[in-house]
Design brief:
The two termini are 18 Å apart. By secondary structure, the protein is mostly helical. It has a single domain, classed as Four Helix Bundle (Hemerythrin (Met), subunit A), CATH 1.20.120. This is Damage-inducible protein DinB. Pfam families: MST.
Length: 172
């Protein structure tokens, strides 16, 4: 898969196609920003908040699954908060010992394929299921898509800063 820095531009009036393209773009942007960092750089923080690039990566893997699988589909998932210390939603991000960046990048893209399937099979106006993440009044698939998209955009920007501090490479 090429790691394109080119923002997608679809002239399709299909909002699902636009959402899929932008989510794919940001997953690839995250991968591109991590590519070339050493193992030490991936696991070292240079930020006052203390998070590392690997911790941000695992957060994105879990975040997308929380919203589309556990949230929208209402499927039970193991360790929905597994990116947080002690499985507590407000805990700091953590990466289990022995997990590699390659494994997390593969999981990121596998989650993306699952998201694509959700979008292919459901109407954007459909509300998420009750019983997984939501106990009442779940949001629409449109809202979930925009929420996940803003998470990716915001955290890709965070990785720009982390990358620049790590080795001087500027995010694009």
């Amino acid at each position: 898969m090429p790691l394109s820095a080119v923002e997608p531009r679809l002239d399709s009036p299909d909002p699902k196609a636009q959402l899929v393209a932008y989510l794919d773009y940001y997953r690839t942007a995250v991968e591109r920003k991590l590519d070339g960092l050493t193992e030490a750089e991936l696991r070292t923080s240079r930020l006052p908040s203390g998070w590392t690039p690997m911790e941000l990566l695992i957060h994105l893997v879990h975040m997308e699954r929380r919203w589309f699988v556990w949230g929208f589909l209402g499927e039970q998932v193991p360790d929905p908060w597994g990116d947080h210390a002690d499985g507590v939603p407000d805990g700091p991000w953590q990466v289990p010992d022995g997990v590699t960046a390659a494994e997390l990048v593969a999981a990121l893209h596998a989650g993306g394929r699952r998201t694509q399937a959700v979008l292919a099979d459901h109407d954007l106006a459909e509300r998420g299921a009750v019983g997984g993440r939501f106990t009442a009044d779940p949001p629409t698939l449109t809202w979930i898509c925009f929420h996940v998209l803003q998470e990716y955009a915001r955290h890709a920007g965070h990785l720009d800063v982390a990358r620049e501090l790590a080795d001087g490479d500027l995010g694009e």
